[in-house]
Write a structure and sequence with these properties.
10 helices; alpha+beta; 10-stranded mixed sheet; single chain; 16% strand
Length: 398
């Protein structure tokens, strides 16, 4: 039998195994000792995390709505009007750009797209603003997705349009087959999509290129379009094609989908201040939560100063006591985040079919958990500073 008494490494490992459960016990007892303080801590964390969840969830939702059309388009490059800031810009191109692009080697196809704002007149009266999206149903560069009733082929129906069912009340309709008017021209709803929402709140209305031009009072010529979606052959030098094509265009520019996304996000989120407001709300939530948790941990530490002094007097290191406080903060973070995550899931489901849903992604959830732990760890600093100043001798003066 081997004598382990002379193996300090083994005893050191065993002491660590025995030490960790004790840290957890001390931390949990400190945390649950004062139930009112515990409740205040958890409420502060939950409030903070839910607020940040809503703000960041709305930010992600807005980003997705702003870039949805660009992300769904079948384009390696976009030909856009000069200085176009977002997909919703409605300047028209004269059409020569398409022929110039098709003449270049490496370009397979150039698909036209017509967009613009128009007035929708409801069947029972009243009007609302819409964003018309004109496509070629036979070879669409941007086809409506999430079709739940009807199909793309139904656009062949005279005066046919496709709308999203989340906007049917706003458009004054209730089902496929109903009629309305766009800029004085009668239209018929032939299909419905699900959850294709607009950041500008103006509903997207898909139709054919020719009808879209009529609705926008544009030239009926097939050369008159808002955008061209450029598709290049596999293995082609996209950067080189973009440079060569850009030299030949005077009133238009060639940009990548990534650049168009960035422009749209910059225009709508930061140009309008919407993104700054959402981010500011999230920061406010973190500050409030940190202050509440810090105050509670500090108060709890003050209430247990004698116990901490006793630990110091019997030989516990300052680092050991710091571990107890950090463990207490981590337990608070874990409990608070668990409750907040459940509430966040309820909010996500409750807003799923709304015009501005709260969106949660796995990465955002992990980020929120890390933020909660960081917030509680930061809050523990004030308590750690207080404990660091403890004089072990105070336990003998009691």
């Amino acid at each position: 039998m081997h004598d382990t008494a002379h193996k300090p490494g083994i005893w050191k490992g065993r002491r660590k195994l025995l030490r960790m459960p004790l840290i957890l016990i001390l931390a949990s007892r400190n945390l649950f000792h004062d139930r009112m303080s515990f409740v205040a801590t958890i409420v502060g964390i939950v409030f903070s995390v839910v607020l940040v969840t809503v703000q960041l969830g709305l930010l992600v939702s807005c980003e997705r709505m702003i870039t949805a059309m660009i992300d769904r388009a079948r384009a390696d490059l976009w030909i856009v009007p000069l200085n176009a800031k977002s997909f919703e810009d409605t300047a028209m191109l004269d059409g020569q750009e398409r022929f110039q692009a098709l003449a270049m080697p490496g370009i397979v196809d150039v698909l036209p797209l017509v967009t613009g704002y128009a007035s929708w007149r409801k069947p029972d009266g009243g009007t609302t603003l819409i964003l018309t999206v004109g496509i070629d149903p036979e070879n669409p560069g941007l086809a409506p997705w999430n079709l739940v009733e009807g199909g793309l082929d139904d656009l062949a129906t005279p005066n046919g349009v496709i709308v999203d069912r989340s906007y049917i009340k706003r458009l004054g309709i209730s089902a496929v087959g109903e009629q309305a008017e766009i800029t004085g021209q009668r239209v018929r709803v032939v299909a419905l999509t699900s959850l294709i929402r607009s950041f500008t709140t103006a509903p997207f209305v898909f139709t054919t290129l020719e009808r879209a031009r009529k609705f926008l009072h544009a030239s009926s010529s097939s050369n008159n379009n808002t955008y061209y979606l450029v598709q290049v052959s596999p293995g082609s030098d996209i950067a080189g094609i973009r440079t060569d094509l850009g030299r030949n265009l005077s009133d238009a520019e060639v940009i990548t989908p990534q650049e168009f996304r960035a422009r749209s996000l910059s225009q709508w989120l930061y140009g309008t201040g919407a993104g700054a407001a959402l981010i500011g709300g999230a920061i406010l939530g973190v500050i409030v939560g940190t202050v509440i948790v810090a105050q509670t941990l500090y108060s709890s530490t003050k209430d247990h100063l004698n116990e901490f002094a006793t630990l110091r007097a019997i030989g516990s290191s300052a680092f050991y006591i710091h571990q107890v406080i950090l463990c207490q903060a981590f337990l608070s973070a874990l409990i608070g985040f668990s409750i907040a995550a459940v509430l966040g899931l309820v909010i996500v489901r409750a807003t799923a079919n709304g015009s501005l849903p709260v969106v949660m992604t796995p990465m955002l959830t992990l980020g929120l958990f890390a933020l909660t732990v960081a917030m509680c760890t930061l809050s523990a600093i004030s308590a750690i500073i207080k404990v660091t100043r403890i004089d072990p001798a105070v336990v003998f003066n009691r």
